[in-house]
Design brief:
It is a single chain. The chain is an alpha+beta fold. The protein folds into 2 domains: about 80 residues, Phosphorylase Kinase, domain 1; about 190 residues, Aminoglycoside phosphotransferase (APH), C-terminal lobe (Aminoglycoside 3'-phosphotransferase, Chain: A, domain 2, Alpha-Beta Complex). The protein is built from 9 helices and 12 strands. A hairpin with a 2-residue loop joins strand 3 and strand 4. Helix 4 crosses helix 8 and helix 6 packs across helix 9. The radius of gyration is 19 Å and the shape is globular. The model has no long low-confidence stretch (mean pLDDT about 95).
Length: about 280
């Protein structure tokens, strides 16, 4: 089935527009705690929040995903740092990781089926930036599992693979991985021969970033790492710090028919080779 054309991106804001909105957001935040506002509004404001996140949310919502409605994006400065902020509609629900144990088997199946459906929607659109691995707006990406955590666009998956190997140790000196060093190197480079579609990706699809209520997904939140990535990234990234026997890795494997089992083994090797470097960022 041919891929659909991704919707047109909104016009990016000027610096003056960001500053004005940021000042307004800060005024609202100074009056409330934790970003929760009256009139069913919410503000997310962090050092990592950037316009790409707001646009990613707008695009995801345009595709029909359950995502906060964005009203404005702004920036202000604190102690020499740029603080981004998003004024959005508040969404009902509780974090999936906090309520999963108390859900019925039928509710768990429903949530898994809904998540599979939403991922299918995201993967049914072509990358407007061609083969480039980049943010939703075509710029730099932010990820908690790369070093550096902010990195420039990669022309294609091959360039992205090269970037991922940037922080891998070149020798076994000081290596303490569970996989023998030479085997880890061999296994990590197997990804070079596994071509993938570059798809619209949340990038941090942990269970705490999914809100549920009455056995249904009400929102997918925290799109700060969103962008265009190889298709396996969405599934393997959340498994890095979790036991393979915990419910979330099992859920991700289930909704994709464990399609990325080989990629996950490559990822494990890559993580062991670059563990010290990534931990330092």
């Amino acid at each position: 089935m041919p891929l659909l054309d991704f919707p047109a991106l909104p016009t990016l804001l000027s610096d003056s527009e960001k500053t004005a909105a940021g000042a307004y957001h800060k005024l609202l935040l100074d009056k409330e705690e934790e970003g929760v506002l009256p009139d069913n509004l919410y503000i997310k404001s962090t050092e990592r929040t950037r316009e790409n996140e707001a646009v990613a949310m707008q695009m995801a919502r345009a595709l029909g995903l359950p995502v906060h409605k964005v009203y404005s994006y702004g920036e202000h400065h604190e102690n020499g740092r740029v603080i981004g902020s998003i004024l959005m509609e508040a969404m009902p629900g509780e974090m999936l990781d906090e309520v999963h144990e108390g859900m019925t088997p039928e509710e768990k199946e429903t949530v898994a089926a809904e998540l599979k459906h939403y991922l299918g929607i995201m993967r049914s659109y072509s990358n407007p930036w061609g083969t480039t691995v980049c943010s939703v707006i075509g710029g730099s990406l932010y990820s908690t599992r790369t070093c550096p955590r902010i990195f420039v666009p990669c022309d294609d998956e091959a360039a992205f693979n090269t970037f991922l190997h940037y922080c891998c140790r070149p020798t076994d000196e000081g290596y303490h991985g569970c996989i023998p060093f030479k085997e880890a190197q061999r296994r990590a480079h197997l990804m070079d021969n596994m071509p993938h579609q570059i798809v619209f990706t949340h990038g941090d699809l942990w269970s705490h970033n999914i809100l549920v209520k009455d056995g249904h997904i009400t929102a997918i939140i925290d799109w700060e790492t969103a962008g265009w990535y190889p298709e396996y990234w969405e599934i393997t990234t959340p498994q890095r710090w979790q036991s393979p026997d915990s419910f979330w890795p099992k859920t991700l494997k289930f909704i994709t028919d464990d399609k990325y089992a080989e990629e996950f083994q490559c990822e494990i090797a890559l993580w062991e080779l670059s563990a010290d470097a990534i931990a330092g960022f």
